[in-house]
Design brief:
Layout (H helix, E strand, L loop, with lengths): L1 H10 L5 H54 L18 E2 L30 E5 L18 E13 L8 E5 L4 E5 L11 E15 L2 E10 L3 E10 L1 E11 L8 E3 L6 H4 L6 E12 L12 E4 L2 E4 L7 E9 L8
Parallel strand pairs: 1-5
Antiparallel strand pairs: 2-3, 3-6, 4-5, 4-6, 6-7, 7-8, 9-10, 9-11, 11-14, 12-13
Length: 326
């Protein structure tokens, strides 16, 4: 009986102090390893998520701008022809409210009667160029602004949306008008939606955002769309053809584009645009320090040791429509 009790006591005896300490040390090493793996996994998830976000935001920003730029100069049956008020062009009575008027003698939303080509395209670098849009007061310094005017295809049979501007066009005549159930009478004309866009970058709190001003009848150019978050910089290089083969021989920043070049009054003609976008993560990652220098065409931008990941995306757009016929 006594021997049986002793045997049972031995069977139910706990760990010794040494065994407990060894077990605790092993547990600590296992816990430390698991924590390191968890931290590494969390860091990898953050890194992968931010890189995916940068790629996607950059792709969307370029797609939006590229779609507009690729159709630059499209004016229906008047493509390549200048607008001359009183001769081949009529505009509605009154002016566009809250208009954004750019540099040059003829650079409002609609053509005017100044003896100068109507500008379908114009741009500047905020805080650097001498000229700017007075309608924009919150553009981030050192970022480009791009203005595009064109028609939206295909032609419409019923130009009756009263918040839109339209253009009736034949090869010889153009009439700009406000959407109405009764469009203007112009023999053999087709009707097109008229569009005026301005792309620029301004902050929303501490997040830079690609924005766009758009045209409407009642509000003019005061309509603002927030397009893509995290777009920190935007650079455009303008490609000019110098020898008449319709291929860009040189690309230059906006500071080098003269008034004569904007108005297509020289032999040089605008035939392509190179667009660079610097995308920044919307949230900082304190485990990452960014000291990279990013190049946007002719311009270098340093990250200055902050905790935001960035990526440059770019594209070259060949213009399909002549701004003005040679």
């Amino acid at each position: 009986m006594r021997q049986a009790m002793q045997k049972r006591n031995k069977q139910i005896a706990g760990f010794s102090l040494v065994e407990l300490m060894v077990a605790m040390v092993i547990s600590l090493f296992l816990s430390a390893g698991l924590f390191a793996m968890f931290t590494m996994s969390a860091t990898n998830v953050t890194t992968t998520s931010q890189f995916n976000q940068l790629q996607e935001n950059g792709r969307i920003a370029l797609a939006l701008i590229e779609r507009d730029v690729s159709q630059l100069g499209f004016m229906g049956d008047m493509t390549g022809t200048d607008f001359v008020l009183g001769a081949n062009t009529q505009i509605p009575a009154g002016i566009v409210p809250n208009d954004c008027v750019g540099a040059g003698a003829n650079n409002a939303t609609l053509p005017n009667n100044q003896p100068s080509h109507f500008r379908r395209l114009w741009g500047y670098e905020s805080g650097v160029s001498a000229d700017f849009f007075a309608c924009l007061n919150n553009v981030n310094s050192g970022t480009d602004v791009l203005q595009i005017k064109r028609l939206i295809g295909p032609a419409t049979v019923t130009p009756n949306v009263n918040t839109r501007y339209y253009m009736a066009a034949t090869p010889n005549q153009a009439i700009f008008f406000v959407g109405t159930p009764v469009p203007p009478v112009l023999a053999n004309a087709r009707f097109w939606v008229y569009q005026h866009h301005i792309y620029y970058i301004a902050d929303d709190g501490d997040i830079p955002v690609l924005r766009r001003r758009t045209l409407s009848v009642n509000n003019g150019m005061a309509n603002e769309d927030q397009l893509v978050e995290g777009i920190e910089n935007f650079r455009v290089l303008y490609g000019f053809d110098n020898d008449g083969d319709n291929t860009a021989d040189s690309f230059m920043p906006v500071q080098n584009v003269t008034n004569l070049m904007w108005d297509n009054e020289l032999f040089q003609r605008l035939v392509a645009l190179r667009i660079f976008v610097l995308v920044r993560a919307t949230e900082a990652d304190n485990s990452y320090t960014n000291n990279t220098v990013y190049r946007l065409g002719d311009k270098a931008i340093a990250a200055t040791g902050d905790n935001f990941r960035r990526k440059v995306v770019s594209t070259t757009v060949v213009l399909e429509n002549p701004v003005l016929i040679r």
